[in-house]
Specification:
This protein has 242 residues and is of the alpha/beta class. 36% of the residues lie in helices and 24% in strands. It has one domain (2-83, 152-241): P-loop containing nucleotide triphosphate hydrolases (Rossmann fold, 3-Layer(aba) Sandwich).
Amino acid sequence: MIKTSGLAKKFDSVWAVRELNLDIKKGCFYCLLGPNGAGKTTTLRLLAGLLKPTQGKIYILGQDITSSSEVKKFIGFIPDTPFLYENLTIEEFLEFAGAIFQVEKNILRKKIDYYLDIFKLSQLKNILIRECSHGIKQRVVYISNFLHDPQVLLIDEPLVGLDPYSITLIKRLLKEYTHKGSTVLMSTHILNIAEELADIIGIIDKGSLISQGTLSQLREKTSQKSLEEIFLKLTISDYGNY
């Protein structure tokens, strides 16, 4: 579902991502971990087609994303900072998002009503987005991505500003997505979320993927028990003296 070959991105003289090779299968929940500035956000933006790679190839659903715009309709992207049209109401924005992805009108209406209900936004659907809190905007971004049933869902720091109910709901919805065969690639700083949700965990540092595997495999590689200990050992050179 997601494959990269020698993927690299350079900003001026700085390599944000270098020689990144991923091969994430259908139905996999993949969590990408790394320190600040490790290249997580750049990686997701490359995969979403928002940045062009300096080197390497990106394949989504077997198609080269740099040469095929058609594949982008099968991708959902949830950034760490929501970008929405502030002068639309919540409902208007969701109708607009569904139309962009050519969701049939009768299906779109049912989906909007369903997600507004489970995200507890039905009573707020006529509020302008500029009047919404960060947490509400995040919920709207999630709904807008669920409307077209993307086969690949890219998520950057997914739970910032969300209340416990929304966090629990989103975790359930994302796991349901992978159980249905869609692929989720999530970057996060919250290690217990990765422990709970991930099928495969990748750890990136200084733009390079330094290790990946199941939690059991990472424990075996590092001789550490918790993901926190694994993460620190792999990303801090003097962890033994830490």
